[in-house]
Amino acid sequence: MYKAKVNVTLRKSILDPKGKATHHALQNLGLNDVKEVRIGKLIELDIEAETEDEARKIADTACTQLLANEVMEDYTIQIENN
Amino acid sequence: MYKAKVNVTLRKSILDPKGKATHHALQNLGLNDVKEVRIGKLIELDIEAETEDEARKIADTACTQLLANEVMEDYTIQIENN
């Protein structure tokens, strides 16, 4: 069993309103040293596979078919052996 | 300038309906080797600080005061020097 940690983030060129709102809220709390906030998704998949390569392939298919919108988002996959 | 990568995940004991829905959607796509899905948040903070310790302290304050609900969620902070 492998665990795939998928990070999905908005591309740098895309405005991130959730991040902007969070940044504003942190400033209201007095945390003025925080200069930028961007918010993405962390998706953890438990994958039944023989090899790490196979697990990565399955995670990549999940990303392209469902988890990430490649027009607006980038994703990275990190595989851990459980 | 430091970059703090904050992962906020639901505690294991808390039901994750978004994850369940995603799991179901992946099964409908034929990805039956995915056995569990859990969804969390990835928050990237750009922090102006003198030292890594100071940056971590600011990120930790942001988590406890705003970003994570410690009753239901766990968080991890990873600091990178930019």
From TrEMBL, chains A, B:
InterPro entries: PurS, PurS-like_sf. It holds the Pfam family PurS. One of its GO terms (molecular function) is phosphoribosylformylglycinamidine synthase activity. It catalyses: N(2)-formyl-N(1)-(5-phospho-beta-D-ribosyl)glycinamide + L-glutamine + ATP + H2O = 2-formamido-N(1)-(5-O-phospho-beta-D-ribosyl)acetamidine + L-glutamate + ADP + phosphate + H(+). Transmembrane segments: none annotated. Pathway: Purine metabolism; IMP biosynthesis via de novo pathway; 5-amino-1-(5-phospho-D-ribosyl)imidazole from N(2)-formyl-N(1)-(5-phospho-D-ribosyl)glycinamide: step 1/2. It is found in: Cytoplasm. It is an enzyme of class 6 (ligase). GO terms for biological process: 'de novo' IMP biosynthetic process. GO terms for cellular component: cytoplasm. Its EC number is 6.3.5.3. Keywords: ATP-binding, Cytoplasm, Ligase, Nucleotide-binding, Purine biosynthesis. Part of the phosphoribosylformylglycinamidine synthase complex involved in the purines biosynthetic pathway. Catalyzes the ATP-dependent conversion of formylglycinamide ribonucleotide (FGAR) and glutamine to yield formylglycinamidine ribonucleotide (FGAM) and glutamate. The FGAM synthase complex is composed of three subunits. PurQ produces an ammonia molecule by converting glutamine to glutamate. PurL transfers the ammonia molecule to FGAR to form FGAM in an ATP-dependent manner. Belongs to the PurS family. Part of the FGAM synthase complex composed of 1 PurL, 1 PurQ and 2 PurS subunits. This is Phosphoribosylformylglycinamidine synthase subunit PurS. It comes from Rhodohalobacter barkolensis. The gene is purS.
